[in-house]
Amino acid sequence: MTTASTHVLVTGGAGYLGSVLSKRLLDRGYKVTVLDNFMYRQNSLMDCCGEEGFQVVRGDCRDERVLTDLLRTADIIIPLAALVGAPLCDRDRVGAYTVNFEAVQLLCKLSSPRQRIIFPVTNSGYGIGQPGVPCTEESPLRPISLYGETKVKAERVVLDRGNAITLRLATVFGVSPRMRMDLLVNDFVWRAVQDRAVVVFEGHCKRNYIHIRDVVRTFLHAIDHFDEMKDRPYNVGLDDANLSKLELCRVIQTLIPHFVSFEAPIGEDPDKRDYIVSNQRLSATGFKPEWSLERGIRELMKCYTIIKAGQYANV
Question: Ranges for the NAD-dependent epimerase/dehydratase domain (predicted)?
Answer without folding.
Answer: 8-237
